[in-house]
Amino acid sequence: MKISTKGRYGLTIMIELGKRFGEGPTSLKTIAQMHDLSEHYLEQLIAPLRNAGLVKSIRGAYGGYILADNPSKITAGDIIRVLEGPISPVEGIEDEEPVKRSLWIKIRDAVKDVLDNTTIQDLVNYKDEGETDSYMFYI
Length: 139
Fold this sequence. Notes:
single chain; 139 residues; mainly alpha; two-stranded antiparallel sheet; 2 strands
């Protein structure tokens, strides 16, 4: 399964909205500038997220978008399904011979498990395990 830029940028939008949850609306222009992305492309992605009830739009001079629910209740799977469609490693699993069908189902279920058990809050709180607090020593 390959996740396209739709899914990747959709997650970017949702993580940024998650970081600002409870602080008011955030414009797509702000998100686009922060990540050096096309604002026009983000506008195309936000519509299905809004239609799915994952984000709400706020009109006005200080408008933008907010998460429709707490970031701990929205999963990566919710976002990927809206933007990418069903989660499946191959098309036509039911037409495969049993041994391969079993493999594809295991892969699909593993991917679903990760996506459905990773919330926006988890992504907001993520710290790179390779990151360490570095100290500067002067001699």
